[in-house]
Design goal:
Helix content: 10-25%
Distance between the termini: 23 Å
CATH architecture: 4-Layer Sandwich
Largest sheet: 7 strands, antiparallel
Enzyme class: hydrolase
Structural class: alpha+beta
Pfam family, one: IMP_cyclohyd
Number of helices: 3
EC number: 3.5.4.10
Oligomer: single chain
Protein name: IMP cyclohydrolase
GO molecular function: IMP cyclohydrolase activity
Length: about 200
């Protein structure tokens, strides 16, 4: 089954996976306090605005370090609002609503999640027909297609490396790359999986 890009988040761990039929020549790289999706060296040139973006950022907030992740340029305003002290629910909802779904041929939803140092985790999506933001008590998945509303999901990863690898290895079609994040006693750890 092809569900497109997706996030999965539990209270302490999360992952984002790029799945793509149209732009498979992408990878995730580390840049400052972010993980960034971008074209590989052999990728054909494109002017598509949805191909490159920060998919995961760690930011300092008034309540401690917080992870924000998702499938597009909305990750940056979510992170910026968190840094300014917005509650995570507001940062997620306002950023998703402001940038809205992607205006491509498929009306692709934007998806995102946050994990806070305070133990709060949220997941959200904005589609052509809805804005959904939910608090997460158990592993929850939302994708751009087919599974475009948050749903409980069996995800047992406990570390960032496991989260990235497990998300990449899920049997959903057209895996390209994945990022993982986990809260630890010393803060957040991140990992990436480019399928190499």
């Amino acid at each position: 089954m092809y569900i497109g890009r997706f996030v999965v988040v539990g209270p302490d761990v999360g992952a984002y996976r790029v799945s793509s039929r149209s732009f498979p020549n992408r990878e995730i790289s580390t840049r400052d306090d972010a993980l960034t999706v971008g074209p590989t060296a052999d990728a054909p040139e494109t002017d598509n605005p949805y191909v490159s973006y920060n998919c995961l950022r760690l930011v300092d907030t008034p309540t401690g370090e917080t992870a924000a992740f998702g499938n597009g340029s909305h990750v940056d305003p979510i992170a910026e609002k968190l840094e300014l002290g917005y509650p995570a629910r507001d940062a997620l909802a306002e950023s998703l609503l402001a940038l809205d779904y992607e205006k491509d041929d498929y009306d692709t939803p934007r998806i995102g999640a946050t994990i806070g140092a305070d133990g709060e985790a949220l997941i959200g999506t904005v589609r052509k027909d809805a804005l959904l933001v939910e608090t997460v008590e158990e592993p929850t998945l939302v994708a751009t297609y087919e599974k475009n509303a948050p749903e409980s999901f069996d995800f047992e990863a406990t570390t960032a490396t496991e989260a990235a690898t497990d998300a990449y290895d899920l049997e959903f079609e057209h895996a390209v790359c994945a990022a993982g994040v986990a809260r630890t006693d010393g803060g957040f750890e991140t990992a990436l999986e480019n399928g190499n």
